[in-house]
Fold this sequence. Notes:
By secondary structure, the protein is of the alpha/beta class.
Amino acid sequence: MRPTIFDKSRPGASGHAIFDAEFSSAPPTELYPKGLLREKPLGLPELTEIEVVRHYTQASLDNHGVDSGAYPLGSCTMKYNPKRNDALANLSGFRDAHPNQPPETLAGIWEMMFELQNYIAELAGMDAVSLQPAAGAHGELAGLLIIKKYLESKNEKRHIVLIADSAHGTNPASAAMAGFACRIIPTTPEGLMDVEALKAELTPDVAALMLTNPSTLGLFEERIEEIAKLIHDNGSLLYYDGANMNALMGISRPGDMGFDVMHINVHKTLSTPHGGGGPGGGPVGVKKFLRAFLPVPIAAKSGDTFVPDYSLAQTVGSVKAYFGHVAVMARAYCYILTMGAAGLKEASENAVLNANYLQAELRGVLPPVFNKLCMHECLLSGNKLAISAYSFAKRLIDYGIHPPTLVGAGCVYFGEDLKSAMLIEPTETETRESLDALIAVFKKILYETESDRQLVETAPHSSPIGKIELKTPEVEPSGKKAVA
């Protein structure tokens, strides 16, 4: 009779070591020092494979994402990540490569990085780009370190960074980490930077102004060229927070507005995964006079091949181990090639169109804070709601919609005047039908607040975790605060 894999009549009968091996429960003292061996069992539960699979499948269903429903989280730009990008990043040439390989064996990766640097530079109006920073805030830090080292090279001891109060909360955090003191520039009643207040702050100690354009209020700074001239006439630099580039691709470039340094959040603009804290990507771009200060390595062409270049004369050094998150950059590269110049522009046009469509259709329920066209996101007021904006937003969860950003609930905070505002960003991902369904839910919840207020105020009812009551942050005497 032919032996089966379970036949133990002779060693090696099956030809499969996994079935033939004699497993011993004795500690492998010959392999590990005795002091490192566990003396008691770990105490892990005894589970079957199907139980483990079901546990993690259910956990994934409990987690909301763009793949499972609308995600109009203002300022965060939760756009769809095409699966073709994942397929490209999973090609063996990317997946199986190791950064310690000889550089000549990674020429294909460096060619991809070289082309991506150039694409981002063209998209942003910059002259040079480093792909190394691991996230948007990390790109901010790298950009501020570049500014700091550039000023030191000129023997200028400027130590103040001006920041718009409509900025992302990472701006003051990054400036402080880079060793700068922060001063906040207020917003006018129209939602734009107060240029007169800016002028009053321009002293010889100012190193830079950090500005997001469009801002976190969803508005484009109409006096951006004037602002850029004021900054440069003061001998300072202009830093662009590229978090909201999804409104501008192929339409307007930060470099053409007068910005000297910037980062781009590839998850917000070039459709890479958000990362849940990592991995991510925040490439930093600069004008030509700052190229020598970029983090290294950058991708370079050497003859007929492509290599990492560590030779930048005044580099701030490496800000990340090895070359940054290559798999994330591969996804951004795939997105750009798939979309093309026309497609990237159309994505931004649709993102702006969708935001304005929501603003127009929800005007009767949640009137816009600023009565004008918005950019990629709209800021709507909840002041007329019978309940808090927080409760209203939490009820959305029961309908499979992620809450928008609550401006006054600790996500982005601008003071008492916007305490009930919601920042909503549908992105270009959502179709007209999807937007109409979202609008219908908003209006239904408004009806529920009048017919069954307790139902809304105790929401969500369908999520694993119930409503968490928030404590309102303390407001500075100025009434405004740029904190995330």
